[in-house]
């Protein structure tokens, strides 16, 4: 049985993405990097707004996502947020 995504008052659908290996529910399908970080923090992911956000892409590639950058998200979207001074 399939479950339909919730529809928020705005008409956006709620999408569960992954931030630092943790599930985060967010209204999609298009969101800013800042909104992703805000949602992750509100849902208990131990990051800060100052962290650098990257989208994990196929073939082990990543793409930086700035606070004002708009990205399309779906259930397969994965992001990593690290402190600005992290050299990993």
TrEMBL record:
Q: Which residues form the Multi-ubiquitin domain?
A: 16-81
Q: InterPro entries, alphabetically? A: Multi-ubiquitin_dom
The name this protein carries in UniProt is: Multi-ubiquitin domain-containing protein
Organism name: Sinosporangium siamense
